[in-house]
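Pilot study result, target chain (431 residues):
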Amino acid sequence: MKASWWVFACVIVLSGFAAAAVTRADGTAIAVFLVVLLVGGVVAGSLWLLLMEPEMQQTSQRSRGRFPQGFGQALLNQMPVPVMVINARGQVSYFNEAAQATVARVAIGSHYSTFIRAPRFVDGVDGVLADGASRDVDFAVLGGGEQQFIAQISMLPAGGDFGPGRQVLVLLDDQTERWRVEQTRSDFIANASHELRTPLASILGYIETLQGHAKDDPEAQSRFLGIMDRQAKRMLRLVKDLMSLSRIEMSEHMRPEELVDIFDLVREVSASLEPIAAQYEAQVRVLLPEGGVCVQADRDQLAQVFVNLIENALRYGGPFPEVDIVHGENNPKYPDMVGVIVRDHGPGIEKDHIHRLTERFFRISPKQDRDKESTGLGLAIVKHILNRHGGELDITSEMGRGSEFSIWLPALRGEVTPTSSNEIKSLKTVS
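Predicted structure:
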């Protein structure tokens, strides 16, 4: 800008010299000087505009909110949302780190359909390239587990950070976790409804029969009432387990503060289950060392864990089950944790089923489980209780040789039998 003013001044001075040189005696010097001054001013103004044009353009760009070259790409690099830019040939011209972590096999220059093989996504990108109208597309990607996405696809202006020609900006919103939660909730409602509907339909059917042709048949009445009683108790067990599971999930984020002697608790639970063991003609042996091992726990919830595990061992331990409850030896897989193992000598569990045992309503044999009065929620309750306690459930089994359900809980430093709340809070979890 300073240079333009120097040029303007020089032109004025030169114009003055030119006017003096052509001055005539007849008194026309003033007219000539004015003409030359006018011409010089036009030349100086043109030169000034020429020199100021780049700076004026930059000022105009800033006034319209444009960013300097490279700013857009730098901004996208920092975004936690997966972002891709696709050119008119369908090739990826840019992707950020979040996209690389989310979409497998994405690479610069590759066609987007090679790593996102979803017809809805392909149609969406092609549609934006064709008409320039933005679209939101939901689609699923298979391979290594199903992933669910919502893609926001829009056109970018040509000549930006990503090269000439038409470019499409794709923002991916990973909906996989939300979809799994919704799927789990939907499956849970469907399973719970089915489990309640079956005994309820049975009860209603027998009521109708008792009101009809069996109303004067004492033998049929006695038999039907017995079945109705069993079905009603089955529904009651299911409702209780559902309520228990709901309460556990509500408090799952809160670590318990009560101090519990885990060996003493196991002995207490085992003694309370002696009538049930007698029904199965079973033998329950508590083979735990003398002395206690303390854990920080909710006593009632931890008791429910051992009730569920011992009852399962009695149900599925064979015709005359034998159940051993032993101390888990130090395991490098569970450092600084105390273990209790509930072992049966039943037929065992196939390896393919073990990882699904803690799923809600999962049954290896649905008919057998219903005959054994199982709700299919026992191990799911165990899993959620252990999650609250920072513990682990380890299941091992061998066909024909029984199964082991191992409970591992963080051990505590300090005295074994403190009773006051201050002493309890002074103990720290080993981790």
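One observation from the pilot: The two ends are 69 Å apart (CA to CA). A full batch analysis is planned for the follow-on phase.
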